[in-house]
Amino acid sequence: MADPRATEASTKHEVPNRSDFIPGNDTWTQWRNIFAILTGKMSDEGKEQFRSARDARNEVADCTRCENQRDYLLQFSPVIRFMSDSIRQLGGDLSSHNIYCRRCTSRKAGGFDPDYGILLCANEMKDQGHLEDTLAHEMVHAYDHLRFKVDWSNNLRHAACAEIRASSLSGECRWAREFFRRGQWKLTQQHQECVRRRAILSVRARPGCKDEAHAEKVVNEVWDSCFRDTRPFDEIYR
């Protein structure tokens, strides 16, 4: 008869307790964590713990940089200034007092809330160009909310249309960003595919959506009219 203690020992050996993220703010600990990531020895859970610790450690610097870039774009970016003027003409007001830079715990770049304004996730901003695209995306949402009375909570078709327009008009789906940042190397229909992909992902994340097939169906239903609608621009600007 087999020794049960041997079986238990074998099981423990086959499934080691892996704790590959090492807490600590000193340089040596940081390099050990980075080396584990680069060599593929850190689990997905460990990578997320590393990112969370890094974001918390850099929160003040990230938010300060985000606020400086936000203020610069509000003053000098053609697309941001145009969207600000278009929103103002509809009775809205978006400026530094209601465009917030914060550390986000969910892996998103930003968000729009009709009651509070725009959130920019400072710890997710790669550079000023990324922040400009994100801010433009959320400003298109703000414009749509004022112009078309979007029902964000209960109408998936409204949400799908808003996401199609925001992804198409903000610049986040332009060819260079898809090619160099996201590894999408197709030479034709790249913009349309990016817009469709991002709209489906956004609709899929909403509570009223059943599954990916449902999200794709809703996006397809509104695609033609919403993709063609470039207001307040005369055409796709970026």
TrEMBL record:
It is a peripheral membrane protein. Its EC number is 3.4.24.-. Keywords: Hydrolase, Membrane, Metal-binding, Metalloprotease, Mitochondrion, Mitochondrion inner membrane, Protease. The keyword ATP-binding does not apply. Residues 1-20 are annotated as: Disordered. It is found in: Mitochondrion inner membrane. One of its GO terms (cellular component) is mitochondrial inner membrane. GO terms for molecular function: metal ion binding; metalloendopeptidase activity. One of its GO terms (biological process) is mitochondrial proton-transporting ATP synthase complex assembly. Has a dual role in the assembly of mitochondrial ATPase. Acts as a protease that removes N-terminal residues of mitochondrial ATPase CF(0) subunit 6 at the intermembrane space side. Also involved in the correct assembly of the membrane-embedded ATPase CF(0) particle, probably mediating association of subunit 6 with the subunit 9 ring. Belongs to the peptidase M76 family. This is Mitochondrial inner membrane protease ATP23. It comes from Aspergillus homomorphus (strain CBS 101889). The lineage of its organism: Eukaryota, Fungi, Dikarya, Ascomycota, Pezizomycotina.
